[in-house]
Amino acid sequence: MMKKYDKLERNAIGRMVPTIINGREHVPFQGVGKFRPTGRKAAPLIATCADYPDDGNKLVESLREALVKSGLKDGMTISTHHHFRNGDLIANQIFDIAHDLGVRDLRWYPSASFPCHEHLIKYLEDGTINRIEGSMNGPLGKFCSEGNMKGMGVLRSHGGRYQAVQDGDVHIDVAVIAAPTADAFGNANGVDGPAACGLLGFALADSQYADRVIVVTDNLVPFPCIPWQIHGNYVDYTVKVDQVGIPEKIISGTTRITKSPDRLLMAEMTAEFCDQAGIIKDGFSYQAGAGGTALSIGNYFADLMRERGVKARFIRAGSNKYPVQMLEEGLVDYILDGQTFDLEGVRSMRENPGHINTSPFTSYNYHGKGNFSTMVDVVILGATEVDVNFNANVVTHSDGYLLHGMGGWQNCLFSKCTILPIPLFRDRIPVIKDEVTTICGPGELIDVIVTERGIAINPLRKDLIEKLKNTDLPVKTIEELKDEAEKICGVPPKPELDDELVAVIKWVDGTIIDAVRKVKTS
Amino acid sequence: MKKIIQVGNKGPRVRSDCFITLSLEETGGRQIRLESKVKALFGDIIIKDTESILDFFNIEHCSLHIEDSGSLPFVLAARLEAAIKALLKSDKEYLPLLIEENRYQTTKNQNRFSRLYLPGNTPSLMINAGIHKPDGVILDLEDAVAHDKKQEARFLVRNTLRQLDFYGAERMVRINQVPGGLDDLEFIVPHNVNLILVPKCEHAEQVHQVNKRIKAIKEKSAIKGNIWLMPIIESALGVINAYEIASAAENVVSLAIGLEDYTADLGTSRTNEGTESFFARSRVVVACRAAGIQPIDSVFSDVSDMEALKENVLRSKALGFDGMGCIHPRQIRVIHDNFAPQQKEIDKAKKIVNAFMEAQEKGLGVVSLGTKMIDAPVVKRAQNTINLAVNMGKLSKNWRNEE
Description:
The complex is a heterodimer of chains A (about 525) and B (about 400). By secondary structure, chain A is of the alpha/beta class. In chain A, helix 9 links the parallel strand 14 and strand 15. The mean pLDDT of chain A is about 95. Chain B folds into 3 domains: about 5-85, 2-Layer Sandwich (Ribosomal Protein S5, domain 2), CATH 3.30.230; about 100-340, Alpha-Beta Barrel (TIM Barrel), CATH 3.20.20.60; about 345-400. Chain B has helices at about 40-55, 75-85, 125, 150-165, 205-220, 235-240, 240-245, 260-265, 280-290, 305-320, 330-340, 345-360, 375-390, 400, and strands spanning about 5-10, 20-25, 30-35, 60-70, 115-120, 135-140, 170-175, 195-200, 230-235, 255, 295, 325, 365-370, 370-375.
């Protein structure tokens, strides 16, 4: 049997990481911007129109038939996207069929997984699925953390997922693209249909590079399906099903402004910081995620913009009703949207030409001729832990459990100012440590930590320190913040983790930045 | 039958607390079972802390189940001590350190615009209260604590006074109604409480009883320092006796009015306009001014309506109140902003104080502004406005030199 991993090396950020993973060689992290691969990208197979129906009708009877016709067999890589979030109905069916066909050792390459995919644990156990390469949330994260996955988990950012496919690091055999609306030729979009989820950008690489591409929809329209974010020219088979996703579960759970006074305070401090740093000015841009704190920061930005009479050029999103309101009010020219978090976001994307669908290629791919992420003035992100060197963790908790995906987090770090608003401690667990459990982002890219008890500016950002020199905001050193938390909570010992590795974290350039260790279960 | 005691809170929504189930045994040593969401990191530390508390009370045999939702050490200690003392009689107290940050005193006339009520048995609401910068925090042992939780809340409030940093807010406790509330004093007076709220006060005698007990405890524990009182007027009789209560003792710094109980006593109900309480509020204001202390208004209970709160604050200020209670941290800012002197008031006060200073510098006996003569009380009020504005960061300390 193939070893899960082999040949550990210490990488440029001091972490021991394997260089052989699931039988394939990988490069350890070399530093930000240091790894420069040469050569040409991967290329998909040449197809011939003669092999496809002239009438454009690629419909087959069922998903099963499409998978069989795609040549599904042992060891293949199957990809899916997560635009349906926890309302996805297709990924589970793919592996039900694979199991039924007796196919084994599949690699699942989702752009993210959700609690609804707990169903797949039995296939990870029985060997239908060898491993997941993608974010693992909730039950799947626990399963992987406890060392139960046969292969090694590989976590990539949204941009890193595109990069891996483009660079040939991951070859997708069969891509299954669940689409809210499609035509029989395979053109598809996310804005129309009963399960409208906004856009299909995460499936772009899959459509372009997979050997076989299957589009599954419950809203089949006559050619042409307009808009066509996914082009049927990449598609092999189309399938009509009764239901492709559960609309109410597509909506992310964290799309409401927080009511917690502590979080609101942090949001207010963050907005105030941005204002004092001179970021809120005409033509600026920002990205804030879907969490309650991030959303309220957007609201405070909107208040400041109205007060000053300034206008943002664009918001990078994760959109929902709050940025949409700003777009409709004229506070911003464009929303450059990677995924929609609520139905208002979907409606706006359908109706408003200023609400633009993007893909990880345009926004995040590090092996491109630039991308949007470096052009954003300020980005607000979360973290489970930060260390005194500003290195941050988003995937594991302090007890070692892998419980979150990375999303576009790593990619966003390249903005002009990256701010992490995080509580100084959660329950009794301090968030600032000497060393984070897992490094997902190098400290040199993380500029500001905002906690309810003080703000720490990365010493590398002398410009920000200078701008905030006379502030009335509680600016402290990160060590002071750490001490303050430990005074309240006590100093927790490092959790004892197993030596065995269960997953690796890829950096945006495909190198290995850290490894996740198995949790001891007693 | 063996007695089993349960103390604390648990449940899916409970955070930063713990639930203790304890029984004392004859034999078998200490059987400790810990369930904690922070067990992977703090499990060993929690067990060690627990053992030292059991050592302190000489408990060798017990069955103890701790269900912890991330409680801070002083919360765990309070819960455990409450459970132990429900089972055995002991005069010993397991006191966590009174941290340096909590050793401050407050003054009789300091700002009391806002004071944030915190239920005395809910740690999660206390822990971050100070970061919202209220003028005062009230650890409430009275209405916010269920009857069967009164005793355990005392231990929690005591430990909170010693351990939790409120970042300079005046540290207040609302005791239970006198006479029962007198026993609360044992748990707060020795722990540097700054101010005690005396609820449902109707007579000066209740103030005297509180002061008598405070004096006794201070002598017993050899404690110095001021402990201020804020009686709460919550009934028709209290309103009638407001001046008697306001002037009952040197350490009464303020009267607060509690309108929920008052309107119930009148047989009416509260409205946003407050017509039904106009007399009572005015009478309390007048009584306080007559006694030279601060009148403080009732809380505004709709925590989602900041506009209505603002109107309420402006009305309250216009009636002559110096501050009001709040039940949610988001109310603090609105209360401060609207009790604070407004720019127009500051500008006027600056002119008056300037005129006064100039008259003094010139050795003039009479202060005038334009064609108007200015009386001494007007100058004093202007100076108060300036001081407030400076304190609240609305005016530079050196405003005279900077203009």
